[in-house]
Structure formats: C-alpha cells, structure tokens
C-alpha cells in the first residue's frame, strides 16, 4: 500500500498564475476588461475559431448558445445522456425539451445513427459533446446536422487541445462551448468560453453575457466622452473576471505541453494495460486525437465489478472515479422516459476514470495498473 494518495486530477497552477492574478488585482481592474479581451483573442486562435466570448462557465456558455439560436419551448434538443448533467440542463434553461440519444461504445460520443434514432420534426438543435476530450466525428455529424436543417452546438468543455481531421475541434464549429473548471486540462478556477466564426453572433453573445448592453463596461471606461448605454434585450450577467482571464492567459501557454504530457502518460497506460484481459482503455479515434482529459477504462469482461474496483483502488490510495455519468438515471430526469440507451448505460455502469495529471509519475502508474492486474487474476 502506498503512503501517498494518487489524485484523479490536479490542476497545473504555478507561480506564474499567482503573479498574473496578483497583477490583475494590483491594476485595479478586476471585472471583465482588457485581460478578458486578450484571453478571448488568444483562445479563439488556439481553438481554430474566428471569435471567442468568455463567460462564467461552460454551463452558462451552453445556455447562451441556445439563446443565440432562439431555441425555446416546444423545441426538442438532442443531447447525449452520457455527459456531465450541465449539457442536458442547458436545454431546460431555455424551456426546450432534452431528448437523449445513445453513444458510440469506443468514443462515448453521438453518431449520425444514434441521433437519427431519436430525431423528430420538433428537433431544433443537437448538443454534441467531445466527451472527455475524445472528438466526435466533426465532418460526418456537422454535415448530417446541416442536411437535417438542425443547429449543432458543440460541447467542447473537456476538449481544449483535442483535434479532429488535423485541426483543433473548434475549427468549423457553428458554436462551441468550453470549460475552464479545474477538472479540465486548463483552468481559470471557474470559467468558460464560446467560440464562433460569425462576427454578428459574437457581438450578440457579448451582449447576452452582459445584461443586453450595447456597449461593454470596459469600452465605456476607455472612452474619453461619456457613453450612454442602452439595454437591447433581457439578458444575463455571465461575465468572466480579469483575474480569471489573467490566470487563463498563463494557462494557454501551458496547453500544448500539458496535452503532450497527458498523451504520453495515456500511451504508457495503454501499453501497461494491454495484457490485462477484460479491460478496454479509451483511445484516439481514427479521425483525431484526444487530449485525454478523462482516461477511462471499460470493464468488458472483468472478474470484479466496477464499484468494487473503485473500492480496491481507493484502499490502495488511488482516487479513481466512476465513468461519465448518465443524466437520464439521475433524479432530476426521473420523469423522462428516453428511448433505449444500452451503450450509455453500459459505459456509465462499467467504466472508470484513472488518475491522469501533470504530477503523475511512472511509479504511480505502475501502482494503479498493479492493483488492476491483481484484481484481474482474482
Ligand atoms: C465540465 C463539463 C461541463 C460544465 O462545465 P462548467 O464550466 O463547470 O460549467 C459541461 N459539459 C461537459 C461535457 C463537461 O464535462
């Protein structure tokens, strides 16, 4: 039994982030301001998109994406049940109905077939998730959505640094929503981003996050002349602070290195796990590369059940997690009777997420795999 506990995730935060946050505080401008604007520009470039609009979280980003698309009561929005619950909740925020679709076993993602199985004339939009950082097939799903005349929102909460067809997953998305929660690869504490290519959409999203104002507080402050703002519609306060953006700017500089390191550690896990029967680790799909935000393992024909595996790992000082949740199994969605979701139910029941972070050592990995190997032969 190891002395130290191995956490499932640790954010990579250094002295540079602490200094950047302190500088933002000392500058006196702590609400949304120049650092947020710079963070948006740099993030959009990294994400392969024309414009970035920073918000308070990915949850609020998803909400604004649906407001932007004018999705509302009477509309159906297809979402994977296999996702963090915020994906489905965003649909309810606008009074629309989430309709759960099943996912592909290997990627955990929606496919044309699983969406087609639940699509109706009332389907207004789809929120497809790049689950745990694994990209969905953007070429196939984007063109299917277009042919159906249905908007495709991309929940890229976990996918900063993931690629599809050689490009960042945000490239070519109609609208993508990102998260900077500490459980993701880069963090601002809390925080989110919307990326779009359309300049008018970016302007509308900026208004929606800031009370519907036609001029931002930062622009008003920068003007020598008094600027009288107008409130064009009922909107929200979903702003990010300049303190968060200061941290985010440092984190952006770390993204490529963190993803490269995660991919190396994931490859080593895959190698070590290869000779353990009944375990299937997540892998890159043929068309892209995951950032391995979540390194999950499916227990396909393992002698020990998932929860018992988690308990054994915990007893050995390893914090693993159950696999990705399924929203339709939660009390909040108890009254929803979805179409059969066999793959979703299998993945959420039989998978677990192993520790993967910048501070994970080869010794830690050997320890984690050693516990699994012992269970496999039990
Ligand atoms: C984490 C996550 C969210 C929510 O992100 P927040 O920034 O915490 O609101 C939404 N969707 C998915 C798929 C996530 O993993």
From TrEMBL:
SUPFAM superfamilies: PLP-dependent transferases (SSF53383). GO terms for molecular function: transaminase activity. InterPro entries: DegT/StrS_aminotransferase, PyrdxlP-dep_Trfase, PyrdxlP-dep_Trfase_major, PyrdxlP-dep_Trfase_small. This is DegT/DnrJ/EryC1/StrS family aminotransferase. Belongs to the DegT/DnrJ/EryC1 family. It holds the Pfam family DegT_DnrJ_EryC1. It is an enzyme of class 2 (transferase). Its cofactor is pyridoxal 5'-phosphate. Keywords: Aminotransferase, Pyridoxal phosphate, Transferase. PANTHER family: DTDP-4-AMINO-4,6-DIDEOXYGALACTOSE TRANSAMINASE, TRANSAMINASE. Its EC number is 2.6.1.-.
């Amino acid at each position: 039994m190891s002395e130290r506990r191995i956490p499932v995730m640790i954010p990579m935060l250094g002295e540079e982030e602490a200094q950047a946050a302190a500088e933002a505080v000392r500058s006196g401008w702590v609400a949304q301001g120049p650092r947020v604007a710079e963070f948006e520009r740099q993030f959009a470039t990294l994400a392969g998109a024309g414009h970035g609009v920073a918000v308070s979280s990915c949850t609020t980003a998803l909400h604004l994406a649906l407001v932007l698309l004018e999705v509302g009561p009477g509309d159906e929005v297809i979402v994977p049940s296999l996702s963090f619950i915020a994906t489905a909740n965003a649909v309810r925020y606008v009074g629309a109905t989430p309709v759960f679709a099943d996912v592909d076993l290997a990627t955990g993602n929606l496919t044309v077939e699983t969406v087609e199985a639940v699509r109706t004339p009332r389907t207004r939009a789809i929120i497809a998730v790049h689950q745990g950082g694994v990209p969905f097939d953007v070429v196939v799903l984007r063109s299917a959505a277009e042919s159906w005349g249905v908007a495709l929102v991309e929940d890229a909460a976990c996918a900063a640094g993931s690629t599809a067809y050689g490009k960042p997953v945000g490239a070519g998305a109609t609208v993508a929503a990102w998260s900077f929660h500490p459980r993701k690869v880069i963090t601002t504490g809390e925080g989110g981003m919307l990326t779009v290519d359309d300049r008018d959409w970016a302007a509308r999203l900026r208004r929606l996050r800031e009370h519907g104002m036609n001029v931002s507080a930062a622009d008003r402050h920068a003007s020598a002349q008094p600027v009288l703002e107008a409130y064009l519609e009922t909107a929200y306060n979903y702003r990010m602070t300049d303190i968060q953006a200061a941290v985010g700017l440092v984190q952006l500089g770390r993204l490529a290195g963190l993803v490269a390191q995660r991919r190396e550690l994931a490859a080593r896990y895959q190698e070590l796990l290869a000779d353990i029967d009944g375990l299937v680790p997540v892998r890159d799909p043929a068309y892209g590369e995951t950032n391995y935000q979540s390194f999950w393992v499916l227990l396909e024909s393992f002698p020990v059940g998932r929860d018992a595996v988690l308990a054994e790992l915990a007893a050995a000082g390893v914090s693993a997690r159950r696999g990705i949740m399924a929203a339709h199994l939660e009390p909040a969605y108890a009254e929803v009777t979805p179409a059969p979701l066999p793959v979703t139910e299998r993945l959420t029941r039989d998978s677990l997420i192993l520790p993967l972070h910048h501070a994970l050592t080869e010794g830690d990995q050997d320890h984690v795999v050693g516990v699994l190997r012992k269970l496999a032969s039990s």
